[in-house]
Write a structure and sequence with these properties.
The complex is a heterodimer of chains A (about 350) and B (about 350). Chain A is of the alpha/beta class and about 350 residues long. Chain A contains twelve helices and 14 strands. The longest helix of chain A has 15 residues. Chain A is globular and about 60 Å long. The C terminus of chain B is likely disordered. Chain B is globular and about 65 Å long. Chain B starts with 19 loop residues before the first helix and ends with a helix. In chain B, the strands form two sheets. In chain B, strands 2-1-3-4-8-7 form a six-stranded parallel beta sheet, sandwiched between helices. A two-stranded antiparallel sheet of chain B has the order 5-6. Classes of the chains: A alpha/beta (about 350), B alpha/beta (about 350). At the A-B interface, helix 3, helix 8 and helix 12 of A face helix 12 and helix 13 of B. The structure holds thiamine diphosphate. Thiamine diphosphate (TPP) sits at the interface of chains B and A. Chain A: It comes from Deinococcus actinosclerus.
Chain lengths: ~350, ~350
């Protein structure tokens, strides 16, 4: 197993953490390192966030640097834009990605455009964190995967980690990035995995994919909550002798096309997995890139495994039908093998 | 702040008392709502209801307001307004189904203009303005009522809706339930304003502040607002001052953000007890007639629960239903995929 990206700042010491603890650790380090960093959003202060990602930070850094805002997403993002223009490093939380829509005007009209529309006189070192995705039986609208909307917005980077160590290293990179970064966190992963996470200010670079497993037969491209699903399918495929290369994109914008293309050139087969609706999702972008740059290597049509063109169902009894599971990914792997 | 009954149940505004029948009906509806809330907790613990936001302590704020509507009027409730929806006539079985995460909770009765509980905050407010205008364009005297919380009144949609409703003279009644909290955020952190009814001033519409734990008062002011709207007098904003005694949802732990002392004192303002004391003192109800009422309500609930239990579980392909009037070719293909996958359930184990 090789990591395409080389982490920086790693001291060698590690600590076992869940993803939410790793995110909390990254925010703690960022607040301690730079007075300009400010954290705000709904319930992030006293309560420490509905998922506890900001737990204890207000007590440690005070109410000026970690604060609860009134309930208004457009104002949270708009205010953050102003703070960023004026020299602070805003780290805003949108409580659930499905509730970022009131802020879309600020995001689509402004967040990504400042550097461009002021010829770099101003820039926006802002991070917006938002829990996203399904698999945990939430009510209506709490399980949306709107990453494609953000990825389609020029000037905004989009990062989606799938492990605790990546979450920490990528979040620190995002906070220190001079441009706006949207940081999606898969709710399903917050507490379901624990791993050794490097202590200290540890960075994972934005724009580098992670090779999760190596294999010669099929490339499976995924990110966030779908990585563990793809890993299970790859393990099942390995049992019947199919070598699957699972690539965790980590970053949608910018996308590490080199890693994807090199892998598809090797395997000749591509399966793309996301939990967003099928039509016009980021999976379609990945498929287009492969078609443009590696079509001569393809031995089978590209297959997308995705959610469906319906709102994410809040019906506990059948929720899991919507979200891709290892079986659906395994079927897609067989399909490209049997073509 | 408008008040009819003091917290101890004594009458402070004789002139505002609705007729005896209405007072009894308000009590009955509050009891139905409370019964739902109390049984809901038990059902949740038994795994027979999903996560739901309790509203115990806010019955007067929801029942007194919704009771001022007729079945021809519109109701736009938030997730916390089960009590309001039940009062207007949403069947208990459907309401249980909704909080059970069943699509049967989305099948709205044809004789009611009530929308499924709104989960995103504040989006219902501009929609109520539209429904109200549509009624007027179609020559009816029907009105639209929308609910929001103190937290929700910080959202842009709230302000845009109030402004539109005023500018367009829409027959709307806006209920702002100020229950003290938006999850962990107390109203004083939410806004520097201390009298949210005065937000109406900025939009040139009447604003009323009412004791939200006094069902007779909430009914009185809402009825006035509904009548004004029906008669072409335009919208009203009503702030019901109440308290969220219970956690934000059944899964929330309020000890992380508020102390027992914050909540102490609100039990003494309990809206159900307040009206009960009044009805007993006024001789409109006896302990015996109340016992009959409670037995009737319990029986109604159990029958509804049995009905909800009889609703079939959704089938896998149902998640794609009702996206368009005519499914797109893409949806048809996706439905076939779901049917193919779920036709062979044993394959699941192999993955
Ligand atoms: C647009 C949007 N943002 C955030 C949320 C998450 N959320 C659910 S309830 C809530 C607090 C609402 O408080 P309030 O409006 O006072 O109503 P209450 O819950 O007290 O009835 C929040 C922030 C949401 N549902 N919708």
């Amino acid at each position: 197993m090789t990591a395409t990206a080389t982490p920086t700042g790693h001291t060698g010491a590690t600590k076992t953490m869940t993803m939410v603890a790793a995110i909390n650790d990254a925010l703690d380090i960022a607040l301690a390192a730079d007075d300009a960093v400010h954290i705000f959003g709904e319930d992030v202060g006293v309560m420490g966030g509905v998922f506890r990602a900001t737990d204890g930070l207000q007590a440690r850094y005070g109410e000026e640097r970690v604060f609860d805002t009134p309930l208004a997403e457009a104002a949270i993002v708009g205010m953050g834009i102003g703070m960023g223009l004026a020299g602070l490093k805003p780290v805003a939380e949108i409580q659930f990605a499905g509730f970022l829509y009131p802020a879309l005007d600020q995001i689509l009209s402004h967040l990504g455009r400042y550097r461009h529309r002021t010829r770099s006189r101003y820039h926006l070192p802002m991070v917006i964190r938002a829990p996203y995705g399904g698999g945990v039986h939430t009510p209506e609208q709490h399980a949306d995967s709107p990453e494609a909307i953000l990825a389609h917005t020029p000037g905004v980077k989009v990062v989606i980690p799938s492990t605790p160590a990546d979450a920490k290293g990528l979040l620190l990179s995002a906070i220190n990035d001079p441009d706006p970064v949207f940081f999606f966190e898969a709710i399903k992963l917050y507490r379901s995995v624990k791993e050794d996470v490097p202590t200290g200010d540890y960075r994972v670079p934005i724009g580098k994919a992670r090779m999760v497993t190596e294999g010669d037969d099929v490339t499976v491209i995924c990110y966030g909550g779908m990585v563990e699903v793809a890993q299970k399918a790859a393990a099942a495929a390995a049992q019947v002798g199919i070598g699957v290369e699972v690539i965790d994109l980590r970053t949608l914008v910018p996308m590490d096309t080199d890693t994807v293309i090199a892998s598809v050139a090797k395997t000749g087969r591509a399966v793309i997995v996301t939990e967003a609706p099928r039509t016009a999702g980021f999976h379609s972008e990945i498929a287009a890139v492969i078609a443009e740059e590696a079509i001569e290597h393809l031995r089978a049509p590209i297959v997308r495994v995705t959610g469906f063109d319906a709102p994410y169902p809040p019906f506990t009894a059948v929720e899991d039908v919507y979200r891709p599971n290892p079986l659906r990914v395994a079927k897609a792997i067989r399909q490209v093998m049997d073509y | 702040m408008v008040q009819c009954l003091a917290p101890d149940g004594s009458v402070v505004r004789e002139d505002l008392l609705p007729d005896p029948e209405t007072r009894l009906e308000l009590y009955r509806q509050m009891r139905r709502a409370r019964h739902f809330d109390e049984r809901g907790w038990v059902l949740y613990r038994q795994g027979r209801l999903g996560v739901f936001p309790p509203f115990g302590g806010m019955e007067a704020s929801q029942v007194g307001t919704a009771a001022a509507l007729t079945k021809n009027d519109w109701l736009f409730p938030t997730y916390r307004d089960t009590g309001a929806a039940l009062t207007l006539g949403l069947p208990i079985a459907r309401t249980l189904a909704y909080w059970r995460t069943s699509p049967h909770g989305w099948h709205m009765p044809a004789d009611l203009k009530v929308l499924p509980f709104y989960i995103p905050i504040a989006t219902q407010y501009p929609q109520a303005v539209g429904a109200a205008l549509a009624e007027r364009r179609q020559g009816t005297r029907n009105v639209a009522m929308a609910f929001i919380g103190d937290g929700g009144s910080s959202e842009g949609d709230f302000h845009e809706a109030l402004n539109f409703a005023g500018a367009l003279n829409a027959p709307c009644v806006f209920i702002l339930q100020n229950n003290g909290w938006a999850i962990s955020v107390p109203t004083r952190t939410q806004t520097r304003a201390t009298d949210l009814s005065r937000r109406a001033d900025g939009y040139g519409i009447p604003g009323v502040r009412v004791d939200g734990n006094d069902a007779l008062a909430t009914y009185h002011v809402t009825r006035e607002a509904v009548e004004r709207a029906r008669n072409g007098g335009g919208p009203t904003l009503i702030e019901t001052v109440t308290y969220r005694v219970k956690p934000h949802t059944v899964a929330d732990d309020p000890s992380r953000y508020r102390s027992e002392a914050d909540t102490a004192g609100w039990d003494a303002k309990d809206p159900v007890t307040r009206l009960r004391t009044h009805l007993l003192n006024a001789g409109l109800m006896t302990e015996a007639s109340e016992a009959d009422l409670l037995a009737e309500i319990a029986a109604e609930f159990e029958a509804a629960l049995a009905e909800a239990d009889s609703y079939p579980e959704p089938t896998p392909a149902e998640i794609l239903d009702h996206v368009f009037a005519e499914p797109t070719p893409q949806l048809k293909k996706q439905r076939a995929e779901i049917l193919a996958e779920h036709a062979a359930p044993n394959q699941k184990e192999q993955a």
